[in-house]
Automatic annotation (TrEMBL):
This is Phosphoesterase. Pfam families: Metallophos_2 (PF12850). The keyword Lipoprotein does not apply. Its cofactor is a divalent metal cation. Residues 5-149 form the Calcineurin-like phosphoesterase domain. Belongs to the metallophosphoesterase superfamily. YfcE family. The keyword Metal-binding applies.
């Protein structure tokens, strides 16, 4: 059975009703790190099942609840999620060797605050970084990704663009 996924990152302690409106439309929410505060993960878990990794700003409480890396298979898709992972041809040193030895079908990272979806043709994987949806950081736009996993396929990818930081733009 297909699963709809909402992917977000870099909330830095920020959550609002607009984000939560999207979480309630997904089968699962994935957070790619820099959650920032337990209240954010609690709010996400209250609406939809949550998978998350901790990021470099996350303290002991979040690090004790979530791992640095999550590697799992869902709907026939091998997924690896981490906070600081880089992207095709520029993977971080922490993941570079392992990703080459055993590439997932979907590699997710956060940290850069830059929305990026790209294929790695050498390794046969899709890389996703949802950008940042929080209001703290250097990013200009607040973004998330929504997609469907279905029988080994990643499909129906949608960018959720909240517009410029501090501005109220309807999605």
């Amino acid at each position: 059975m297909a699963k709809s996924i909402l992917l977000l990152s870099d909330t830095h302690g920020y959550i609002d009703e607009r984000i939560l409106d999207w979480t309630s439309k997904a089968d699962e929410v994935w957070h790619a790190g820099d959650i920032g505060d337990q209240s954010v993960s609690d709010a996400l878990k209250a609406t939809t099942p949550l998978r998350a990794v901790y990021g470099n700003i996350d303290g002991h409480e979040l690090r004790s609840e979530f791992p640095l890396n999550q590697r799992f298979v869902l709907e026939g898709v091998d997924i690896w999620m981490t906070h600081i992972g880089g992207y095709p041809n520029r993977y971080s040193k922490e993941v570079k060797d392992e990703i080459k030895l055993n590439p997932p079908k979907l590699f997710i990272s956060g940290h850069s605050h830059i929305l990026k979806v790209m294929n790695d043709k050498k390794l046969g994987l899709l890389h996703m970084n949802p950008g940042a949806v929080g209001i703290h950081g250097f990013h200009q736009k607040r973004t998330m990704l929504k997609f469907v996993l279905d029988n080994g396929k990643i499909k129906d990818l949608e960018v959720i663009d909240f517009g410029k930081r501090g501005k109220s733009v309807s999605s």
